[in-house]
Automatic annotation (TrEMBL):
<keyword id="KW-0812">Transmembrane</keyword>
<feature type="transmembrane region" description="Helical">
    <location>
        <begin position="293"/>
        <end position="312"/>
    </location>
</feature>
<feature type="transmembrane region" description="Helical">
    <location>
        <begin position="126"/>
        <end position="144"/>
    </location>
</feature>
<feature type="transmembrane region" description="Helical">
    <location>
        <begin position="261"/>
        <end position="286"/>
    </location>
</feature>
<feature type="transmembrane region" description="Helical">
    <location>
        <begin position="55"/>
        <end position="80"/>
    </location>
</feature>
<keyword id="KW-1133">Transmembrane helix</keyword>
<keyword id="KW-0472">Membrane</keyword>
<dbReference type="InterPro" id="IPR001851">
    <property type="entry name" value="ABC_transp_permease"/>
</dbReference>
<feature type="transmembrane region" description="Helical">
    <location>
        <begin position="29"/>
        <end position="48"/>
    </location>
</feature>
<keyword id="KW-1003">Cell membrane</keyword>
<feature type="transmembrane region" description="Helical">
    <location>
        <begin position="174"/>
        <end position="194"/>
    </location>
</feature>
<dbReference type="Pfam" id="PF02653">
    <property type="entry name" value="BPD_transp_2"/>
</dbReference>
<dbReference type="GO" id="GO:0005886">
    <property type="term" value="C:plasma membrane"/>
</dbReference>
<dbReference type="GO" id="GO:0015658">
    <property type="term" value="F:branched-chain amino acid transmembrane transporter activity"/>
</dbReference>
<protein>
    <submittedName>
        <fullName>Branched-chain amino acid ABC transporter permease</fullName>
    </submittedName>
</protein>
<feature type="transmembrane region" description="Helical">
    <location>
        <begin position="100"/>
        <end position="119"/>
    </location>
</feature>
<dbReference type="InterPro" id="IPR043428">
    <property type="entry name" value="LivM-like"/>
</dbReference>
Length: 328
């Protein structure tokens, strides 16, 4: 893993200041994404697309914390994985409809983020990162031992159910519609947070925390708030993934999942609005289409990460934004 101090400080301050034209550009990108989401199932396998969207939302949630809050967490798999367990149990054993199961997973992830965040934000830099990793490892151990998670077998055969009890989600294309809506609304929510007064204060804290304190902002409250928001959105992604793949397993709460979302964010572009989506697309595509290489996929991912850090630390979208001179 790269030097955490440099990751937490990198390209944010260098981001171009947004203008009215930039916001118009963002609206066009959003409309383009909406059209792409609508047409994508016509040319690509819906299950692959749903995997990309779930991990794209996960990476966007992580980027909200790291790219705009300046907080590098090594434990985001805890919220992603625990939400998937709760969502799977809610759908399979509690008999909840899929939207309520996803909501239950999201709420639990938010509460877990509140508990973990209240402890972690008391420290800064590498100490903050190590606390998040330690707490996530505790969540992994709990998931391994607790009866309701199914241990090493996980929770399998999770029913997709019917949306609002009316629309069956058994068909992949119908379920894709739900996942696409969840992803798009999650992305719009993150965009709104970034461009709200709350988001501006976050950027001020990220760029110069002592100055933000001197201006009277209660920094720890802002940090905790963005931590909980990021954990909740990561949980939304994990809960949705459990419904899509009808499975919740230890993989989702393992520390490697935390590393994977860091990789997605850095490859796509930390501190960019759309970068994590591209990063998730690249990593999921590699995992899917390079699967015949077995364990070598991890080596290839490592090489991509090294090349990204050495050649363009801003990530794919960050590099594109720098070339265009426009924030993306």
């Amino acid at each position: 893993m790269a030097d955490t101090a440099s990751l937490a400080a990198t390209p944010i301050a260098a981001a171009p200041r947004e203008t009215r034209d930039d916001r118009a550009l963002h609206r066009r990108v959003f409309m383009g994404l909406a059209v792409a989401l609508a047409l994508a199932p016509l040319v690509l396998y819906p299950v692959f697309l749903m995997k990309v969207l779930c991990f794209g939302l996960f990476a966007l949630a992580f980027n909200l914390l790291l790219g705009y809050g300046g907080l590098l967490s090594f434990g985001h798999a805890a919220y992603f994985g625990m939400a998937s367990y709760v969502s799977a149990n809610a759908a399979k054993h509690w008999g909840l409809t899929p939207e309520l199961a996803i909501l239950a997973g999201t709420v639990v992830a938010g509460l877990l983020g509140l508990a973990f965040g209240a402890l972690a934000i008391r420290r800064q830099g590498i100490y903050f990162s190590m606390i998040t990793l330690a707490l996530a490892q505790m969540a992994f151990f709990f998931s391994l031992q607790a009866p309701f998670t199914g241990g090493e077998d996980g929770i399998q055969a999770v029913p997709r159910g019917a949306l609002f009890g009316l629309v069956s989600l058994a068909d992949d294309r119908v379920l894709y519609g739900l996942v696409a809506v969840v992803f798009f609304l999650g992305m719009l929510a993150i965009y709104r947070i970034i461009h709200s007064p709350f988001g501006q204060v976050l950027k001020a804290i990220r760029d110069n925390e002592p100055r933000a304190i001197s201006l009277g902002y209660r920094v720890n409250r802002y940090k905790l708030a963005v931590f909980v928001l990021s954990a909740s959105l990561a949980g939304l992604a994990g809960a949705t993934k459990a419904i899509v793949f009808q499975l919740a397993s230890l993989t989702d709460v393992h520390w490697t999942m935390s590393g994977e979302v860091v990789l997605m964010t850095l490859v796509g572009g930390m501190g960019t609005v759309f970068g994590p989506i591209i990063g998730a697309l690249v990593i999921v595509t590699m995992e899917t289409y390079l699967a015949p290489f077995g364990a070598w996929v991890t080596v290839i991912q490592g090489l991509v990460f090294v090349l990204c850090v050495l050649l363009f630390r801003e990530g794919i979208v960050g590099l594109l934004a720098r070339r265009l001179g426009r924030p993306l």
